[in-house]
Design brief:
Among the domains are: 79 residues, no CATH class; 31 residues, no CATH class. Helices cover 37% and strands 13% of the residues. The chain has 8 helices and 6 strands. Helix 3 packs across helix 5. The two termini are 28 Å apart. The structure holds iron/sulfur cluster (SF4). The site of iron/sulfur cluster has 14 residues, from helix 2.
């Protein structure tokens, strides 16, 4: 294996099991990028081109922040109105941390309409469960494991619930559209990724994986077993091998799909453009990110916008089938 490392963050390097040399890292979003389009993966992970924020992705970040804060309130006070009241302060916090997001709105009226749409998503959440009846064990939980071969898997789980029986439920909020029946397996890939990491680090297979689509007011749930998680592990290892081969060959090809409509590179011309749409691929970078490279965690907000949810199956021919 070569030592191309993807997605480490400075603050989490200390969490890794240093007994195993880390040869690379994958998160669900980065794995999804490669499965969706190898060129997209290259631009985001190897060239590290900045990705323009979108109002949908930022709304996802905002709604997630509110739902995390909601559980700071005591049970009995977690109401739609209380959640709505958290929108303004969480937006202020987000805008202070990332001032560029304020440029997404032409004027106050546009911002106000966007906040109303975020309120609609929060209202959708309350139709799916009653937060007064549960106490999350963990929120925005960073999970990480280094597999024996040195591939590090990492991600941030929106919520982990633990029942008195010890049963674990992994919950992820989605602000994009729910997948059609044919794409449910792809949507659950991210959850199986988290389940695998939890199993490998805590020795417990989560009883239930639950995706909550706030806009469509739908829940997609699945109960994984050991075979599922072993298959997920094999798939990720095969995916990593494919990424390594592509890196060594410097060959990350575009893979057009309907997701191109959400891709920053579709109209990027010569600055990291896509040849499928008349653009020019950047020259291979002189420095490929190594194990010590850093990346901001908030980029995982991409997982919360619509396009990545319904990402197609892996293009990696040797990847075992997940379903
Ligand atoms: S526009 Fe489509 S094919 Fe081109 S890089 Fe983006 S996702 Fe890939």
């Amino acid at each position: 294996m070569s030592t191309v490392a993807l997605e480490p963050t400075a603050e989490t390097d200390a969490v890794a099991d240093l007994a195993v040399p880390v040869v690379g890292s994958l998160s669900p979003s980065r794995a999804g990028d490669f499965m969706t389009c190898p060129l997209l993966f290259r631009y985001r992970t190897i060239d590290r081109l900045p990705q323009a924020p979108s109002s949908a992705a930022v709304r996802g970040t905002l709604v997630h922040a509110v739902l995390e804060r909601l559980f700071d309130l005591p049970a009995g006070q977690r109401s739609p109105e209380a959640a709505a009241a958290l929108l303004a302060p969480e937006w202020a916090r987000l805008a202070e941390a990332e001032p560029e997001v304020t440029g997404l709105f032409a004027d106050e009226a546009e911002l106000a309409a966007w906040l109303v749409s975020a309120r609609g998503l929060l209202d959708g959440y309350f139709t799916l469960e009653n937060p007064n009846w549960l106490e999350p064990a963990e929120r925005e939980a960073f999970v990480e494991v280094v597999l024996p071969g040195g591939l590090r898997l990492r991600g941030i789980v929106d919520r982990i619930d633990v029942a008195p029986s010890g049963d674990v439920r992994v919950v992820d909020y989605k602000t994009g559209r729910a997948p059609g029946e044919m794409f449910e397996g792809k949507a659950l890939f991210q959850m199986k990724f988290y389940a695998l990491v939890l199993w490998r680090t805590r020795g417990v297979i989560p009883k239930r994986l639950q995706l909550m689509y706030l806009g469509d007011r739908e829940v997609l749930a699945y109960s994984p077993d050991e075979d599922d998680l072993l298959a997920t592990e094999r798939k990720l290892l095969a995916l990593w091998e494919a990424i390594e081969r592509a890196t060594q060959a410097r060959d990350f090809r575009p893979k057009p799909s309907r997701l191109c409509d959400w891709c920053d590179h579709k109209a990027a011309g010569s600055e990291g453009g896509c040849p499928e749409f008349g653009g020019t691929v950047l020259p291979w970078p002189t420095v490929v990110p190594g194990p010590g490279a850093s990346e901001q965690r908030h980029l995982d907000a991409r997982d919360r916008s619509a396009p990545s949810v319904a990402a197609p199956l892996p293009a990696v021919s040797e990847a075992p089938s997940q379903e």
